[in-house]
């Protein structure tokens, strides 16, 4: 198996189920790790958005039904509004709405009673507050004719507009969701750096960031499921980083055990199959000693590293033959 090119689903399973497999992620290129984070975040964001739509559609249906149930029979024609109900109609709310289409009523007397109000008359709609007064005349709609029945027919036409609005909101959510996960990965990598320093393993900052992305897999899934199920837990963000810290400790401890085994000589170098793609302690010291001494495993391209190792081995063999 080419350990530098693990597929998405295998990486997904390994990141959740096995601390020992985290050594394989050290040989992943940064681009593949970033692609994994983007793809995982995209899938979770789409699942979250899909869970919103049924609720949004239900709210729209309820709103439409309430409009049809509460709105009295009316007629708007030639710039004049007639409402066939007992006047005035007062809707008490934070911004009161007064409807009075009687022609013998002075709108100014009604406006005088309120500091903030919306008044609907037979000729116009007036919005008044402390700062200003705005008027909208029905005559600006020309010869348009509308009744309660035509309004009921128009409401279903709002659904395509709802889909467009929902899609725009979903796109913005996905973009910010993915950006937020990169920020979370940086924070988790700081936790990883602190524990890496405490354990004295000297992984490079780039390699810590790589495995930090995989640390977040299960906490991200758990958080998404809680959001979909509408389960609210206080300080959820703290629990997210606690879950990531569990993977930090488990994975880095596993990597340290592998390193200790390499240097203690507890394994046969010839049979050691892959610590992060390195074939054994002898190759680890040769291809990665400079990076290790300066703070981490080599971040060079896996194929180039293997070619360099092979070239050095051939050079050593030639030198020995010459001496003999």
Explain what the structure shows:
This protein has 324 residues and is of the alpha+beta class. The chain contains 11 helices and 8 strands. The strands form 2 sheets. It has a 5-stranded mixed sheet with strand order 3-4-5-6-7. Strands 2-1-8 form a 3-stranded antiparallel sheet. Helix 3 runs parallel beside helix 7 (205-215). The protein is elongated and about 100 Å long. The two termini are 37 Å apart.
Low-confidence stretches: 266-324
Strand % is 5-15%
Give the class from helix and strand content and strand pairing. Answer: alpha+beta
Instruction: Please provide the count of β strands.
Output: 8
Pattern of helices and strands: HHHEEEEHEEEEHHHHHHH
Number of helices: 11
How many angstroms separate the termini? 37 Å
Overall outline:
elongated
Overall mean confidence score, pLDDT: 78
Strand order of the largest sheet: 3-4-5-6-7
Largest sheet: 5 strands, mixed
Task: Assign a percent range to the helix content.
Answer: 55-70%
Rg, nearest Å: 34 Å
Could you provide a short overview of the structure?
By secondary structure, the chain is of the alpha+beta class. It has helices at 8-17, 22-25, 30-70, 107-111, 148-154, 158-199, 205-215, 217-228, 236-264, 281-294, 302-323; strands at residues 74-77, 80-83, 89-91, 97-99, 117-120, 124-128, 133-137, 146-147.
Q: How are the SSEs ordered, and which strands pair?
A:
Layout lengths: L7 H10 L4 H4 L4 H41 L3 E4 L2 E4 L5 E3 L5 E3 L7 H5 L5 E4 L3 E5 L4 E5 L8 E2 H7 L3 H42 L5 H11 L1 H12 L7 H29 L16 H14 L7 H22 L1
Parallel strand pairs: 4-5
Antiparallel strand pairs: 1-2, 1-8, 3-4, 5-6, 6-7
Helix pairs in contact: 3-6, 3-7, 3-8, 6-7, 6-9, 8-9
């Amino acid at each position: 198996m080419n350990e530098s090119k693990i597929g998405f689903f295998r990486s997904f399973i390994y990141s959740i189920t096995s601390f020992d497999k985290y050594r394989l992620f050290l040989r992943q290129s940064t681009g593949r790790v970033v692609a994994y984070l983007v793809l995982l975040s995209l899938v979770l964001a789409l699942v979250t958005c899909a869970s919103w739509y049924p609720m949004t559609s239900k709210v729209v249906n309820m709103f439409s039904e309430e409009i049809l149930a509460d709105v009295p029979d009316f007629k708007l024609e030639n710039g004049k509004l007639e409402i066939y109900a007992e006047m005035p109609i007062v809707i008490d709310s934070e911004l009161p709405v007064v409807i009075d289409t009687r022609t013998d009523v002075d709108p100014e007397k009604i406006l005088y009673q309120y500091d903030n109000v919306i008044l609907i008359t037979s000729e116009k709609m007036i919005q008044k507050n402390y700062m200003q007064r705005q008027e909208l005349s029905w005559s600006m709609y020309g010869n348009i004719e509308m009744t309660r029945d035509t309004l009921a027919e128009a409401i279903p036409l709002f659904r395509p507009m709802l889909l467009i609005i929902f899609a725009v909101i979903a796109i913005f959510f996905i973009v910010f969701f993915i950006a937020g996960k990169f920020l979370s990965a940086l924070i988790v990598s700081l936790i990883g750096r602190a524990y890496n320093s405490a354990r004295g393993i000297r992984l490079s900052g780039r390699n810590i960031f790589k495995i930090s992305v995989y640390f977040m897999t299960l906490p991200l899934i758990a958080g998404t499921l809680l959001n979909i199920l509408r389960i609210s837990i206080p300080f959820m963000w703290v629990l997210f980083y606690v879950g990531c810290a569990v993977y930090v400790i488990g994975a880095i401890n596993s990597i340290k055990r592998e390193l200790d085994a390499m240097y203690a000589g507890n394994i046969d170098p010839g049979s050691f199959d892959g610590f992060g793609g390195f074939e054994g302690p002898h190759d680890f010291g040769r291809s990665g000693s400079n990076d290790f001494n300066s703070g981490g495993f080599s971040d060079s391209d896996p194929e180039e590293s293997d070619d360099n190792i092979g070239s050095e081995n051939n050079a050593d063999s030639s030198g020995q033959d010459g001496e003999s």
